[in-house]
Structures are given as structure tokens and as C-alpha cells.
Design a protein that fits this description.
Protein name: Ribosomal RNA small subunit methyltransferase I
Structural class: alpha/beta
Low-confidence stretches: none
CATH architecture of the largest domain: 2-Layer Sandwich
Number of domains: 3
Catalytic activity: cytidine(1402) in 16S rRNA + S-adenosyl-L-methionine = 2'-O-methylcytidine(1402) in 16S rRNA + S-adenosyl-L-homocysteine + H(+)
Keywords: Cytoplasm, Methyltransferase, rRNA processing, S-adenosyl-L-methionine, Transferase
Shape: globular
Function: Catalyzes the 2'-O-methylation of the ribose of cytidine 1402 (C1402) in 16S rRNA.
Subcellular location: Cytoplasm
Order of helices and strands: EHEHEHEHEHEHEHEEHEHHH
Largest sheet: 5 strands, parallel
Helix content: 40-55%
Mean pLDDT: 92
CATH topology of the largest domain: Methyltransferase, Cobalt-precorrin-4 Transmethylase, Domain 2
Number of strands: 10
Length: 274
């Protein structure tokens, strides 16, 4: 193997696996987001393998060189600051280039914050969508939250301490009764999981739930709406658009709840717009 995609603890160093320790000891180079953060981990486990920065700001300029080194026989481990690499972190680009070059890689697993938060949420997990971090721009952020709130399956996202109030406020403005779970400091001393209706959760933020640490938000899916089938299809689509859905989302939703073909709903809706 030329690359080991190696999971590390989210916070509690006791979660480090024997396999991960041995992997980091035996490779030639450890690729990491922040060498200072990873140095604390390697020092704790007496790992003296050289560290090399690999992050969003330099990945485009170093990947080809890493591939060349692999082809010359060097082995690498890829880690993130905490948890499983590649998830909401750089790395898929390197994996893609390795596939193109016919190079082998292996995965040394650990937990990811979003999967652990989902387990702890008490919200259905049979179907869910993971969104990572929301867009930073306010307009795009609001649009993404509206989209998320329209889904019937559970949604999971990451949020920062200084944005969590804004995100919960946006959720409440759409559906204050929607069940939401917040997890923070997962596996650490002050680990916390709270499940409440969105409007109640908003009141807890900054009080019972400190605005510290990274947050994982799990949102219950939207309930299937009771449909008045005497309403024309076009009016039904227009009503969902007024609630914040895009035309594409509204057409898909109407087709699902009315058990119609999406193309038929699309054609009928756009025919009235001519």
C-alpha cells in the first residue's frame, strides 16, 4: 500500500486504535492538516514519523509530488485534525489521483463526528443526508437551510459556535416544532447531546448548551403533507414554491406525494407558465 487513510480520535486519545498507531509508526511520511495538532498526537504515542502539511490551501500544489514519491516507493498516512480523513476535509482529490495512477491505498477506520451524533440523536437514522458545513454567505446559507428543511429524511450538518444561533433561528422560522438534536464535544470531558423541538432548543443555546466546541446538528425530516387532491397540480407546486422550495424541489415533492411521474408534473406546471 502507498497510502493509509488513517482515522484518529475525535478528542479522547484512548480511542486511538493499535492498528492506527502501528500504521503511523511504519509509514515514511504522515500527511496532516495542522502539523502542530498532529504533533501532539504523535508525541503522546511516541511516534517519530516526519509530518508534512496537506490542507485546503496547499493540496493543489503538492499532490502531484506526493504521487511521484509514491511511485518511487515511499509510503504515506493521511490524517485529519480529528476523526476520519476526507469527510469535510481535503483528501478525495489525492485518492482520485491515486486511482488514476493505479496506486493502492487502504483505510484505517475511526469514528466521524456526524455518525456518532446521529447515533446519539434519537432521531430516525434509516435514511439521512449529510451536509457538512453550511455555506458562509448569508443568502446561500438561508437557501440551503430551506432546502434541508424540505427533505423528508433526517439531515445532519456541522456548525460552529458563532453560527449555531443563526442556524437554529433559521430552522425555527421555518418550523419551530421540528425535532432537532445538538451534539458537542463528542468523546471529550464535557460531551453533550440534547434533543428538543427547534424552538425550545434555541432557548437553551448559550445557557444549558454552552457556545463552545464544534456542533453537530441532526434535524428530523419533514412530515409528509396531507394533500388536498382537489387542488390542481400546478397550484400545489406554486404553494410549495411560496413556502421556500425551488421549482425543481416542489415538482419532485408533488410527484412523490401524489404518486405521479415527475416529468408529468413538470410538463403540466410549465405548460401553464407559457
Amino acid at each position: 500500500m502507498k497510502l493509509y487513510i488513517t482515522g484518529t480520535p475525535l478528542g479522547n486519545l484512548d480511542d486511538m486504535t493499535y492498528r492506527a498507531i502501528e500504521t503511523l509508526r511504519n509509514v515514511d511520511v504522515i500527511l496532516c492538516e495542522d502539523t502542530r495538532t498532529t504533533r501532539k498526537l504523535t508525541t503522546h504515542f511516541d511516534i517519530d514519523t516526519p509530518l508534512r502539511a496537506y490542507h485546503d490551501f496547499n493540496k493543489g500544489g503538492v499532490e502531484d509530488g506526493i504521487i511521484e514519491e509514491m511511485q518511487d516507493g515511499r509510503t504515506f498516512a493521511l490524517v485529519t485534525d480529528a476523526g476520519m480523513p476526507v469527510i469535510s476535509d481535503p483528501g478525495f482529490e489525492l485518492v482520485s489521483k491515486m486511482q488514476d495512477a493505479g496506486l493502492k491505498y487502504s483505510i484505517i477506520p475511526s469514528g466521524s463526528a456526524f455518525t456518532l451524533a446521529l447515533v446519539a440523536s434519537g432521531i430516525p437514522s434509516y435514511e439521512f443526508t449529510y451536509f457538512g458545513f453550511l455555506p458562509k454567505a448569508n443568502a446561500k446559507r438561508r437557501k440551503k437551510i430551506q432546502e434541508i428543511m424540505s427533505y423528508e429524511q433526517t439531515s445532519v450538518l456541522y456548525e460552529s459556535p458563532h453560527k449555531i444561533m443563526d442556524t437554529l433561528t433559521a430552522i425555527v422560522n421555518i418550523d419551530g416544532g421540528r425535532m432537532v438534536s445538538i451534539s458537542r464535544e463528542i468523546t471529550k470531558k464535557f460531551e453533550q447531546h440534547v434533543r428538543r423541538p427547534a424552538d425550545e432548543m434555541l432557548q437553551l443555546l448559550g445557557h444549558e448548551i454552552p457556545l463552545k466546541g464544534e456542533f453537530v446538528v441532526v434535524i428530523e425530516g419533514a412530515q409528509a403533507e396531507a394533500i388536498e387532491f382537489d387542488i390542481p397540480v400546478t397550484e400545489h407546486v406554486e404553494a410549495l414554491i411560496k413556502e421556500g422550495m425551488t421549482p425543481k424541489q416542489a415538482i419532485k415533492k408533488v410527484a412523490e406525494v401524489r404518486d405521479l411521474k415527475k416529468q408529468d408534473v413538470y410538463d403540466e406546471f410549465h405548460e401553464t407558465k407559457k
